């Protein structure tokens, strides 16, 4: 059982990041490989402005970092263990209930993308 406030805050921060489908897609894309914002926007089919808001949220949550690369900035997961955590979380949820969907699973209520 979680009793330490910092443990709860860490999980809540991760939950806020995962609460948006676009941020989930970003994390999954970055799990595969670091990427540049323009490439991520194209791959996800969203505007660069919208992508920027979602990346800012993930940075604020401490889940992604920027890496300068000449004149460009590359994004990657802050720690490779996050990729493993995403895989573990996905398989654990599927193992528990495969026929359930969340009522808001397809909703993008926070169109601005910020946490």
TrEMBL record:
Residues 3-100 form the HTH arsR-type domain. Gene3D superfamilies: Winged helix-like DNA-binding domain superfamily/Winged helix DNA-binding domain. InterPro entries: ArsR-like_HTH, HTH_ArsR_DNA-bd_dom, HTH_Metal-responsive_Reg, WH-like_DNA-bd_sf, WH_DNA-bd_sf. Pfam families: HTH_5. SUPFAM superfamilies: Winged helix' DNA-binding domain. This is Winged helix-turn-helix transcriptional regulator. The lineage of its organism: Bacteria, Bacillati, Actinomycetota, Actinomycetes, Kitasatosporales.
